[in-house]
Design brief:
By secondary structure, this protein is mainly α. Helices cover about 70% and strands about 0% of the residues. Helix 2 packs across helix 3.
Length: about 100
């Protein structure tokens, strides 16, 4: 049942995007909301000039995504690779016929 629900939802999403003439316009409100979030974070009281608020929000956004990248890299280091699970790196000299 759960697998069917997932496939039905995926099918509906693909059909919806296939019928969307302007995907960029469809996602514009979400992008605007994300950018506004960073502006509110750096200037919650609205005291900065628009240029300064935009500059700071840009750095806050870059810091946020850099932090995500760091956490992702750290998580990947903790997860064993396929080669580790299978007993060694693929394509080693020992596996090659001479």
């Amino acid at each position: 049942m759960t697998a069917d629900r997932s496939l039905i939802a995926r099918l509906a999403a693909h059909e919806s995007w296939a019928n969307t003439a302007d995907p960029s316009a469809r996602t514009a409100p979400a992008r605007r909301a994300l950018l506004d979030r960073f502006e509110r974070r750096v200037d919650p009281d609205g005291l900065l000039s628009p240029a300064e608020r935009a500059r700071r929000a840009g750095h806050a956004r870059k810091a946020y995504f850099t932090r995500l990248a760091l956490r992702s890299a750290q998580a990947r280091r903790k997860t064993p690779s396929v080669a580790d699970v299978d007993g060694g790196p693929k394509g080693s000299d020992e596996d090659q016929p001479q």
